[in-house]
Structures are given as structure tokens and as C-alpha cells.
Specification:
Bit1; 128 residues; globular; five-stranded mixed sheet; alpha+beta
Length: 128
């Protein structure tokens, strides 16, 4: 893992699939599930409680990025896990917008940008 720079800060990322449309309201709900889920994982994992406490001390930045499709999201998940970075993948139940259970988003972190796998570092910020 690359060491963080002095200018770095702990952040969480939300990785959103861009291979289908997600209505804004649904995306807001899925984002909530992702950040709530990763928070529960942090607080329940030895060693991560301290990292989460540092994250909370400094503005709790959250960055929303997009990935090409499910394969890219799952590759990001694997690479983050290999880099010892927490992830929390959300699968929508398929009761309203989607006709079946569908992986929509994934939360990552908290970690420093420099610690993210290069593949994840290249994801673009989400625009509209």
C-alpha cells in the first residue's frame, strides 16, 4: 500500500455503475445503504474503528465516482479487498425500479486516495 501524503485526508468513495439508469431517488437510497453498511463494517472490525474515528474527525468527505459496469465494480471490490480496504456492495432487492435483484453501488473506505488500487483511482467523478 502506498503511504498517504501530508496533504491527504481519509475519504470514503461511492462507486456507481453507469451501464444503466438509476433514478436520482433510487441512487440516494442506494447511497444511504452503502454508507450505512460500510460504517457498520468499520465499527464492527478491529483496527477499523480507529480509522473510522479519524475519518469522522476530519469532515467525513465522500466522493462519488462511476465505473463502466458490474464487472468493473466487482474488479474494484476484489482489488480493494486485496489492498486491505473495506468495501460494502449494495444489491437492490428488485421491488421497484429493477425487475430483479441488481448490484447498484459500492462504498469503499475510509482510506487515503493513495491507498486505492490504481484501477479504482482512475474512476471518473460522477457528473449528473
Amino acid at each position: 500500500m502506498t503511504e498517504p501524503t501530508a496533504q491527504s485526508e481519509l475519504k470514503m468513495w461511492l462507486v456507481v455503475r453507469k451501464d444503466f439508469e438509476i433514478p436520482k431517488g433510487k441512487l440516494a437510497g442506494q447511497s444511504g445503504h452503502a454508507f450505512e453498511g460500510i460504517t457498520r463494517v468499520c465499527l464492527g472490525t478491529t483496527g477499523w474503528r480507529e480509522t473510522y474515528a479519524k475519518y469522522v474527525e476530519h469532515n467525513t468527505p465522500k466522493i462519488v465516482v462511476v465505473c463502466k459496469n458490474l464487472d468493473a465494480l466487482e474488479r474494484a471490490e476484489r482489488e480493494c479487498i486485496e489492498a486491505n480496504i473495506l468495501t460494502y456492495k449494495v444489491t437492490d432487492a428488485g421491488r421497484t425500479v429493477f425487475p430483479e435483484p441488481t448490484v447498484t453501488v459500492m462504498a469503499v473506505g475510509p482510506c487515503y486516495f493513495e491507498q486505492l488500487p490504481k484501477f479504482v483511482q482512475r474512476f471518473q467523478l460522477m457528473k449528473e
